[in-house]
Amino acid sequence: MLHLDVPQLLGLLVIVLGSAKVLGMLAQRIGQPAVLGELIAGVILGCSVFGLVNPKNEPLHVFAEIGVVILLFEIGLETDLANLLKVGGASAAVALVGVVVPFALGYGVAYLLGLETLVAIVAGATLTATSVGITARVLSDLGRLQEPESQIVLGAAILDDIIGLIVLAVVAGIAEGGSITLFDVLRIAAAAFGFLVVTLVAGGIIVPPLVRAIAHFRRPGTTATLAIMFAFGFAWLAWWAGSALLIGAFAAGLLLRRTTLVHEIEKGVAHLGQFFVPIFFVTVGAALDLRVFNPIEAANRRTLVIGGMLILAAVAGKFVAGYAPFWFRGKKSVIGVGMIPRGEVGLIFAQTGLASGVFDDKLFSATALMVMVTTFIAPPLLRALFPPVHAKGEVPEPEGLQELVTKA
């Protein structure tokens, strides 16, 4: 990680937040979600153009991680657990197909291009990821988070994160020349699923009376602060249990949604998210280095070919997954498109391949291109397939997550 002095960090935050807000508003002006503008801001500020934002800068990296934790906490606050459970079967089908098919396609593409077996395995694993933060942000921006299609996507993406933990552990073990046993795989799976089940059951009993007790003694701002502490605490517990930070934050939101203070919590947390969440999306965009795709050099042309093939496999594999729940009568195309973005999750897989020596810089760049293209194409496609629910000219009073996504 790179270090920044406090004055440098303050100046950089002015640039990052200002660019994210301006380009987010411009994106909304042309009918696109604000997140698309924030991603473009990252590309412009990153090494592709100005070189001002390096995702490896330690303070920015920490702020970005806090941003995605807050975002998943907000998504949990906006998610009805009963509705999520109703589409559990459909979500499981989408998640399963959304892992198996992209992995097979990615492995096949890499193998046909003459890459080694281990490289093909890691490339295929990278295609299994799904970024729940990006899709959920877009769906909320469109006012569609409560739709059945959105609930299926959300459930499937959370399951993908859990499956991704297992796949990543297996891939990391193989890449580092270690051995992964069936017991290791079962242990990781039990930790991820077990944490979610235990926290929802135990938390459902403990949290409501605890919140009611706090409500009698709260002062202005106390509720939002305690909610953030709750989200961070659950994220830490998830990490400690061998699960993912995002799963813990999401579980915390699900639990607090059922309390009487949910609207007050949403408003308070949304203000904090205005600072942290755009930083997350800017750093995702800044991770793409467009310079490695200069077609003049022969090596870059091969990188473009590999990246292009991976993009086709990535889009096709996730889109097909949307049609896995054949019994569902809603817009399956929305589900398929909602599963496409890889975002920060895909970059973690790619970075694992690079750090272990399985990927060289060119292969990492090809994989990063796949991650970024799938991340960029999803927002406008979702906007086209799933128009905003509010009538033209109607401007609803924003609150909670809606406030977070509409005030770009």
Salient structural properties:
408 residues; mainly alpha; Na+/H+ antiporter like fold; globular
Question: Can you characterise this structure?
Answer:
The protein has 408 residues and is mainly alpha-helical. It has one domain (6-406): Na+/H+ antiporter like fold, CATH 1.20.1530.20. The protein is built from 17 helices and no strands. The longest helix is centred in the middle third of the chain and has 34 residues, at 182-215.
Topology (elements, then pairings):
Layout (H helix, E strand, L loop, with lengths): L5 H24 L4 H12 L12 H21 L2 H6 L1 H25 L4 H10 L5 H10 L6 H28 L6 H34 L6 H19 L4 H13 L4 H25 L11 H24 L10 H7 L4 H13 L5 H25 L14 H7 L2
Offer a quick outline of the entry.
It contains 17 helices and no strands. With 408 residues, the protein is mostly helical.
The helix-strand sequence is HHHHHHHHHHHHHHHHH
Q: What is the CATH third-level topology name?
A: Na+/H+ antiporter like fold
What oligomeric state do the depicted chains represent?
single chain
Shape-level CATH architecture: Up-down Bundle
CATH class: Mainly Alpha
Largest sheet at a glance? none
Task: Please estimate the helix content.
Answer: over 70%
CA-based gyration radius: 20 Å
